[in-house]
Amino acid sequence: MKPLITITQVFPEKAIERLGQQFEVRYHGSGQSLSLEALGQATAESAGMVTYLSDKIDQSIIAQAQSLKIIANYGAGFNNIDVASARAKGIFVTNTPGVLHETTADFTWALILGTARCIIPADRFTREGKFHGWGAKLFLGHDVYGKTLGVIGCGEIGRAVARRATGFNMRVLYHQRNRLPESEEQLLGAEFVSLEQILSESDYLTVHVPLTDETKYMIGEKEIALMKPTAYLIHTARGKVVDDKALVSALKENRIAGAALDVFEDEPALTEGLTELDNCVILPHIGSASFDTRNTMAELVVDNIIDALEGRTPRTLVPGW
Ligand code: 8YV
Questions:
Q1: 160-174: per-residue pLDDT in tens?
Q2: Has 175 been annotated as catalytic?
Q3: CB of 77 shorter than 6 A to ligand 1
Q4: How far is the centre of ligand 1, averaged over its atoms, from the C-alpha of 286 (Å)?
Q5: DSSP letter string over 143-154?
Q6: I want to staple 34 with a disulfide (CB 3.0 to 4.6 A). Which of 38, 67, 155, 298 is the partner?
């Protein structure tokens, strides 16, 4: 009998076919997340699991594993998985680093430019038949060129975002736990600053840290209060790094110019008040959603599964496994 691989959500066909050449594949491609019960059962029966950020693989799920060798998360973030519990049972946990950062950085820039120049509300206005002639004050936005970009979290994605600022002649600040090597800072043209400084000096503040105990609610009421009234917050990382309620209050009172959110605290639920705000763009977690990148991510997921089931250490184990 071939080992069973469960895919918990929609996955590219080519990658499913590749898995099917070696394994029995159970594909849950309806677009709905598996219930906790179904997730537990799949964990009990499978040799490999392809999981998503919406699958909460906690200790109680992992405890049900019998011959599970690998949990291969389809994404770079892996805060949905209790890595310590998996490791304790000898189950590999992998993610997809190195393949989605440029795509997510492109997307971050789309949000920077889109919010700065009111692209989404202006499109809505035009579609609704409200454009009755050129107006000198119609959808005035802010410049991006020559302004200050603040990058919180200069990992792969943060660095790819910072690199793109060169063409916009921006001052680039970054903040994270550890300073980058000087050569890397020079390459990026980025200056290491404190959290207080990045908050108070950035015109565009973009967040790229993973969700950990340390980063949970790192941008809350106190931090937002330090931002300029003309500043924008761009958040494509993980819900709960930003305190959405504090952000909604700040946006309501125009304490900052605007925000763009691709992730939410209790995703897919939207934090109360968000949909009523004109100065906030809200998107359904599509940072890495390009055809090429989603396929490349899937190929890496398959590589990891094949590695694990053929007795090798998978190529992209999550840090700390
Ligand atoms: C994934 C993401 O698509 O990589 C990540 O961390 O947020 C997205 O690229 C998402 O995690 C789906 O599982």
A1: 999 999 999 999 999
A2: no
A3: yes
A4: 8
A5: --TT-EEEEE--
A6: 38
Give the domain extent around 175.
101-282
Determine which one of 28, 101, 208, 285 is catalytic: 285
What CATH number is given to the structural domain containing 65?
Answer: 3.40.50.720
From the CA of 285, give the closest atom in ligand 1: 7
Q: Is 71 exposed, middle or buried (0-12, 13-18, 19+ CB in 10 A)?
A: buried
The DSSP element (H or E) to which 88 belongs, if any, is: helix 83-88
What pLDDT, on the 0 to 100 scale, is given for residue 271? 94
Q: Residue 166 domain-assigned?
A: yes
User: Which amino acid, residue 97?
Assistant: P
Q: Residues near 247 by Cβ (< 8 Å), separated by ≥ 6?
A: 219, 224, 233, 259, 261
- Mark whether 257 and 142 lie in a shared domain: yes
Query: Whole-angstrom Cα distance, residue 202 to residue 230?
Result: 9
Same domain, 61 and 165: no
The number of beta carbons lying within 10 Å of the beta carbon of residue 211 is 20
Q: What is the pLDDT of residue 273?
A: 97
Separate counts of helices (H) and strands (E) for the chain: 12, 12
Give domain status of residue 149, yes or no. Answer: yes
Is 12 a pocket residue for ligand 1 (Cβ < 6 Å)?
A: no
Q: In this structure, are 109 and 86 located in the same domain?
A: no
